[in-house]
Write a structure and sequence with these properties.
The complex is a heterodimer of chains A (467) and B (317). By secondary structure, chain A is of the alpha/beta class. Helices cover 49% and strands 14% of the residues of chain A. Chain B contains 15 helices and 2 strands. Classes of the chains: A alpha/beta (467), B mainly alpha (317). Chains A and B meet through helix 1, helix 2, helix 3, helix 5 and helix 19 of A and helix 2, helix 3 and strand 1 of B. Chain A: Keywords: Transport.
């Protein structure tokens, strides 16, 4: 008895702490399963917003930014001047619209997108992988706007990648995002180094490319310094290009879009992976690519330290500035000369949050980017890529012989050959960091076979669909 | 504020029934005790809201399958089952244990040697310089340290240049991009960061040792090595245990150095639980699995650290 009492008294201050702890414990245990109620209200709000948006655009006249002062909330990607230049120009033309812009690296946006869209919905956001966001009803359905602005009259290939069906597959269903332009990848080369290695023209077949790589190596030049370190496996660029050389871009798209029964582990893709392995074994890549990030790759290329670089036309403007007249560009050549060519080509994706305050103005801006002459100029000279919009729309003239001119030309070829593919890293939210990257790094280190690489990625893909 | 609280307390408290407990009871009833808690209240509230609540929420989330936004599903212990069966998850824990060698053993052993050396030259200016240089990594943010070391260890970095210079050109490589060397390379960065902390802690411990003991030992004919093992080492038990505890936690819960230098690559060879939790929660959006791994990590740290504490206490008693 005494003992018990004594303990009780001595423990009085401790009791308060215990009570506080218990209080918070109860607060936690008292609340229901995480996300349950919030999710219901969020998706309800999203649904309401979507239908309101659609009906408003269909019924109530022009969609624009009005004349009252509007502050647009935007979330952009650091390191790319294009969106900022576009919003500046837009404010010049529509002075009542000002921009409140937050910028982050793409990887950070990827990690933040869902919570940002749910908690503080921006009017305009650079979007990572779409389908995981679509499932939670976080993005505004843009079909109503598409109808009122006439986007549906544009070439369908521009918008199909931005559609997500209810079952999570892409390529069909409601339009959930728009592009500021569409980018495309291929191979850049240093003209001076090419001449040094005795290469006089861009290769027209895969065999010629193989020969050129060997020539560079024989001349003591690093043929390709491709980034493949950290969480970003840059060998996915040449791998996907090779996949399109050996197989059909449609099959690759089906896999990325999540069509049922699609697999990446096909005989054609195995040939592509084996070809990549052949390049690795032949020493065509710098020996430290597994420790190389994107910035290092760029500085090695612009510093004249490697002949080739698999990269996208978003660098065209930059390369024209840094190495004027010294850079060439070609699409990965087909097996036989004159064959169809394909490339990773995807819209620079921007979306509107389901709960955005100024959705109409954001949609008006996206339409302006594609149709306004000055905006299209900016899209090409700053963004280096082809603007979105109707096939016969105004195209700015670019300096002949510049890389930008070459990439635009290559873009037209891909369009003709119907060879646009999304990036294999976009199949789902985690496939790039958790599957492609470690597998490609293992392939470089000789710890994975080309066949095993595709089998593993496919297994991860299936596992993620099950989740 | 204190008086009404005290009066309430004295109303409700029964009188102490036996004399033996009177003194203790009186101490508990003193107004000062309440006042003390009043001062601590803001900290307690902040601690409860920002430390205890997230901790408990993490435990709660670990029983659900949840993407962080939509509806969640109760899955019981499934997430924990995955932690122990999925090689990707327990593999990261094994990597963390390998890091203990670099983050803990090397800094503590080197720290002892360095501190003993500095103590012997305590009067010279060199000792001050050595102490400052060794402690510098503690002042530099880990992110900067990670970036600097990424340059040093790159294929054309200083480390490889030095190896070339002394004729070991054959061993040069991209240390952080090689499957065999990435984890040890990350470990070296950790050892570099933690060596200064251990040295300083141990040096402080050594300064408390009575110089008379050394004098006596020297009169008995003991050399530097004998002094170290017979006097210095046994006197530093408490400091060594603090060093080991801190560095083992740093190894098991490592995140920043690895996020900056390798991001878990190449091919997951430097993946640690801290980074894995981050990827699970933000890339995969599997909050439940991330929470389960986080809880497992907390338990693991306690399981490793508590025996170290016990051991140190038993020995000093």
């Amino acid at each position: 008895m005494t003992h018990a009492l004594r303990r009780r008294r001595a423990g009085t201050p401790g009791l308060i702490a215990t009570a506080l702890t218990l209080g918070s414990l109860l607060a936690v245990v008292g609340c229901s399963a995480p996300g349950g109620s919030t999710a219901a209200s969020t998706s309800a709000a999203a649904g309401a917003a979507t239908s309101a948006g659609s009906t408003a655009t269909a019924a109530s006249g022009p969609v624009d930014c009005g004349t009252d002062p509007v502050t647009m909330k935007a979330y952009f990607e650091t390191g790319f001047p294009l969106p900022k230049d576009l919003t500046d120009e837009f404010t010049k033309q529509y002075p009542n619209v000002t921009w409140d812009i937050r910028e982050d690296q793409f990887a950070v946006i990827t990690q933040n997108a869902a919570r940002t869209l749910a908690d503080s919905p921006p009017d305009l956001i650079r979007l990572p992988q779409l389908s995981s966001l679509a499932a939670d009803g976080l993005l505004k359905d843009l079909d109503g706007y598409a109808a009122s602005f006439g986007w549906d009259a544009w070439p369908e290939s521009q918008l199909s990648q931005l559609r997500v069906a209810e079952d999570g597959t892409r390529g069909s269903g409601p339009l959930l995002a728009m592009g500021l332009n569409f980018s495309m990848t291929g191979v850049f080369y240093n003209k001076e180094l090419a001449a040094k290695a005795g290469i006089t023209a861009a290769p027209t077949t895969l065999a010629e490319l193989d020969a050129d790589l060997q020539k560079a190596k024989d001349a003591g030049i690093v043929p390709i310094a491709q980034f493949n370190g950290g969480a970003t496996g840059g060998l996915a660029f040449p791998l996907q290009d090779l996949m399109a050389v050996y197989g059909s871009p449609t099959d690759i798209n089906d896999w990325i879009f999540g069509k049922s029964g699609a697999t990446i582990d096909t005989p054609a893709n195995q040939q592509a992976a084996q070809h990549l392995k052949k390049w690795i074994d032949a020493g065509f890549f710098a020996d430290d690519i597994n420790a190389m990030d994107y910035a290092t790759m760029m500085s090695r290329f612009t510093g004249g330290e490697s002949l080739f670089m698999f990269n996208g036309d978003w660098e065209s403007g930059n390369l024209d500035k840094q190495m004027p007249g010294n850079v060439g560009f070609f699409l990965t050549p087909p097996v036989e000369s004159g064959g169809a060519q394909a490339a990773m080509s995807a819209p620079l994706t921007y979306g509107i949050a389901a709960g955005a305050e100024h959705a109409d103005c954001a949609a008006f801006f996206l339409n302006w980017v594609a149709t306004n002459q000055t905006a299209r100029d900016i899209g090409v000279t700053v963004g280096g890529s082809h603007p979105m919009g109707p096939a016969d729309a105004y195209m700015p003239t670019v300096e002949a012989g510049s890389v930008t001119a070459q990439t635009l030309e290559a873009g037209a070829k891909v369009g003709q050959d119907n060879g646009a593919m999304d990036f294999i890293a976009n199949a789902n939210g985690s496939i790039y960091a958790k599957s492609w990257t470690p597998q490609l790094q293992s392939l470089v280190a000789g710890q994975q076979t080309p066949e095993g690489l595709l089998t593993s990625v496919q297994a991860d893909y299936v596992a993620d669909q099950g989740n | 504020m204190a008086s009404p609280l005290t009066s309430v307390r004295s109303d409700t408290a029964p009188p102490p029934p036996v004399p033996t407990s009177r003194r203790r009871a009186r101490r508990a009833r003193r107004p000062g005790a309440w006042l003390g808690w009043l001062f601590a209240a803001p900290a307690v509230v902040v601690y409860a809201v920002f430390v205890l609540r997230p901790l408990l929420l993490t435990v709660q989330y670990s029983f659900y399958q949840w993407n962080g936004i939509g509806a969640s599903t109760w899955v019981g212990l499934d997430n924990y089952r995955r932690v122990v069966t999925d090689p990707e998850l327990y593999g990261s824990i094994l990597n963390a244990f390998e890091l203990i060698v670099f983050f803990s053993f090397i800094p503590v052993i080197l720290g002892l040697l360095v501190a003993a050396t500095i103590r012997r030259i305590a009067e010279s200016r060199l000792a001050v310089v050595a102490r400052t240089v060794l402690f510098l990594p503690q002042v530099i943010p880990l992110v900067s340290a990670g970036i600097i070391w990424t340059w040093l260890l790159s294929s054309r970095g200083l480390v490889n240049q030095l190896l070339d210079l002394i004729g070991l050109g054959g061993t040069t490589r991209a240390w952080l991009g090689d499957f065999d060397t990435a984890l040890p390379a990350v470990g070296v960065i950790g050892a570099w960061v933690l060596l200064g902390l251990c040295t300083l802690l141990l040096l402080a411990g050594m300064s408390k040792i009575d110089p008379g003991q050394y004098e006596a030992a020297r009169i008995d004919g003991a050399g530097a090595i004998r002094e170290f093992f017979s006097i210095t080492l046994p006197s530093l038990r408490a400091e060594i245990s603090v060093c080991i505890t801190l560095t083992v936690i740093a190894a098991l819960a490592s995140f920043d150095i690895i996020y900056i230098s390798t991001q878990g690559g190449p091919g997951g060879s430097t993946m640690v639980p801290g980074l894995q939790i981050f990827y699970l929660a933000f890339s995969d959006r599997r909050i439940g699995a991330a929470s389960a791994l986080a809880v497992a990590l907390v338990v693991l740290v306690l399981v490793v650290v508590i025996p170290i504490q016990r051991l140190a206490k038993d020995n000093t008693a």
